[in-house]
Amino acid sequence: MATETTPKIRIMKGAASDLSAATYQVHDESHTMGNALRWMLMKNPKVEFCGYSVPHPSEPNIQIRIQMYDNLSSLQALLKALEDLDNLCETINDAYAESLKNDDYEKWDEKS
Amino acid sequence: MDVDSRRLVQIGAERVSHIGDTEFPGHYPNEDHSWNLDKFREKLTVQIQRLSQRSIEFDLVGVDASIANAFRRIMIAEVPTMAIEQVYIFNNTTVIHDEILAHRIGLIPLNVDPTQMDMKEDGAPPTDRNTIEFQINIQCTHNPDYKKGSSSPTDDELYVNHQLLSSHVEWKPVGEQSTRMTDVAPTNPNIVLAKLRPGQGVEMSLLATYRLHPNIIIKSPIPIERADEFSKCFSPGVVKINKKKGTVEIDQKGMRNDTVSREVLRDPEFKDMVELGRIRDWFIFQVESESAYKPEQLLPEAINVMREKISTMREAATALLKAHGEGGDDDVVME
Prior knowledge:
The complex is a heterodimer.
Chain A: E1 9-11, E2 21-27, H1 31-42, E3 47-53, E4 61-68, H2 74-102, E5 106-107
Antiparallel strand pairs in A: 1-2, 2-4, 3-4
Helix pairs in contact in A: 1-2
Chain B: E1 8-11, E2 16-17, H1 37-43, E3 45-51, E4 55-61, H2 65-77, E5 88-92, H3 98-106, E6 133-139, E7 141-142, H4 155-158, E8 159-160, E9 163-165, E10 170-172, H5 177-180, E11 192-195, E12 201-205, E13 208-218, H6 227-232, E14 239-242, E15 247-250, E16 274-288, H7 298-327
Antiparallel strand pairs in B: 1-2, 1-16, 3-4, 4-16, 5-12, 6-10, 6-12, 7-8, 9-11, 13-16, 14-15
């Protein structure tokens, strides 16, 4: 294995110079983040196209392709999607904690 | 329950249609489907249904499959737990081969809270902060108390230690572990790891799913004479029959237990009377915990893991943005 550490995110060859269309290779991620990010990016009206792939099952990489309208920066869109996804996680966490604390649900004894 | 048809996955006799979510910007004219946190918060429902000491069932309504799936994937594969990684075998005369026995031992769930320990990096030396040590030492012998006479004696009568159980895995506290932790052991003491016979001995040093909420609509009244047959097409508790009034209804609470077997669509009379579906954004999570985590802790842990992933990616993306901004054609142009 190479001694230098692999960067977490790498812009792959062939990206537009203004990053309005680029493929990002994300190291050590899988469908978990790939599909969630893809969905969040598609929720952005400035994004023309977004898709992700896992190029090979035994390589711990995913590739996310983002193409933008109006020559906007796809990197900015990626950052926005990450921030939105974080807010979404926080919202679900709060709603879950609230339900666990205040809701009236069945508690039962399960034998292992 | 009246569900918007856009939220339904339709289930026909031979096919399933309308699987994917279509609410994206630009899909429907004059509708705004861009990401909106306030709207999301309004539509989101998280409701816990049942809780026991080792499992939880909760509904997650109003999220996309990609998000629900991310949580499921993290819960089954990425929430850290403790497991036996290295097994040194000094003596194993059982019929179970060394490597198979080692593998079986690796699968035993332990009751150690992973947050109390550090992750052991590759090649790092073991310390009392990142490693827990166990040992196994049993020997099977004939039972000296057994007297001949019984025509079919059980193993328990004949032998001592004829089974290697997870309760034989004995914790050896190292360093400050004896003060920091108590009663480290497998969560279940009755897992059979190997069977032994006299002369054999061992000495060593040592789940989440989800589904979509079903939706059943009766389009035209079901004839009361065939009500029982209709009811048998579904899981128990789904169909409500009122013999006095002569009505057949779907129980709105019992509906969640239906398996959507489509049996009803095989009946020539019934097939046009009902419509089957699943609600695309209504996830029924069933989480079982076999580790040190309480079942209700697993989703928050999964969300933490997800947010950590997000923050590492954000750092990397911000760094990339800076690096690109320096050499790129940004707003400050000096010529």
